[in-house]
Amino acid sequence: MFLFFLLCAAAPDAPPIPHASATRAREAEAPWVAFTLTPAEQICFQAVVDGHPVAAILDTGVSTSLLSRRFVDAARMRVRGGHAALAIGGTVASGWVDPSSVTIAAHTVQNPRLMTAPLPPATTGQAAIDLLVGSDMIAHYALDIDYAAQRFRLLPSGSLPFAGNIAPLRIGGEWSSYVTDLLVGTHHLSRMAIDTGDGSAITVTRGAWSALAEQQRPTSSTISYGVGGAAIVDLAIVPGVRSGAAPARTVEMRIEPSGGYTATIGMNGRIGSGFLRHYRVLLDPHAGRMVLLPGSSVDTPPLRSTSGLILRRDDDRLTVLHVMRGGPAEADGWQAGEQICAVDGLPVSAQGTLHWPVDTAGRSVRLATCTGVTRTLTLRAFY
Questions:
Q1: Peptidase A2 domain spans which residues (predicted)?
Q2: What does the pLDDT look like over 247-268, one tens digit per residue?
């Protein structure tokens, strides 16, 4: 979800790639690790720190793995240093800790040097997470992520467990990012970071967006959350995205403002789990390749808001986190922070999955605020 600025350690050197028969034997022995997707579309699994099970996120956007300050304080670990680190949403105070061991997918790292910082629940869609596993621990493996079966495994570099579309991949930049290229329409974008800790699909810098023909498409706005806080970014739906030979026909793209996080880390953009989850993915930077095998959902278009409200569910109410630019909610005067307690006369607590914020244009929805005022919102397409 974020990558530390000025404090990042380089990924370790790659081990020698074993010969083919040894590689196949090790592939067969490599255990699968089950995961779930957080509400923010991040890969959540169980790891072990100093003998204690912890909820972890597999985060290729982090160059130095991180323990939450909550876990560190509960374990009474000694924290060294204290620096400002760059994250999505701003900077955050961080330090260093030295656990005895971290175990991931049956691989144990002894005496790792980890960073520590607060991990706000908003960064994971309210999921409680204590460990971000970054490239310092996994970059010398081939990372096989089976999103459809919700499992991953760490294989020896050079493994090719399935056939798919191949795109270039390397560890690059001052902060040891997973880096690939992307074709948007007819325009080639280099320096695209692969960030499995980012639940959005594709994010680009303002400069990269201005070079695309797609910049003429209608845009709105949305909110992104990182360890450093919230950030407002532009939002568009674009066709014709291609990674290597793998096409994606319709993709949600976020555009950061000038001087945003992605530009600061020297990248033109980031590819997140919102895009990757439609494929089986192999990330093997030391073999120079990313392999994408399309899944059944690859051509499913992204949901588009027709309400213009981005909401968080809090038991018996919905809290407005952001009012999207150009949408019907903005036109009707809705503001961030307002709360909704009933929809079409039905209490929020009695509702299941919320479909109405992205429902058919033309539908009118009665929204009762928690202050007792009922307002009618007519849905429409606006980006």
A1: 54-128
A2: 888 999 999 999 899 998 899 9
Choose one of 133, 156, 179: the last residue of a domain: 156
Query: Two tokens at 249?
Result: 């026909």
| Cα–Cα distance list, 23 to 143, 156, 291 (Å) | 14, 7, 17
DSSP code of residue 214: G
Question: What global pTM score does this model have?
Answer: 0.88
CA 184 – CA 169 distance, rounded (Å): 17
Query: Which string of b and e fits 272-285 if b means at least 16 CB within 10 Å?
Result: bbbbbbbbbbbbbb
Q: Hey, how many other C-beta atoms are within 10 angstroms of the C-beta on 136?
A: 22
Neighbouring residues of 303: CB distance < 8 A, sequence distance ≥ 6? 358
CATH number of the domain within which 173 lies:
2.40.70.10
Separation of alpha carbons 155 and 160, rounded Å: 9
Q: Tokens standing for 220?
A: 């709105």
Tokens at 309, concatenated: 């409200």
- The token pair that represents 278 in the structure block: 């439609």
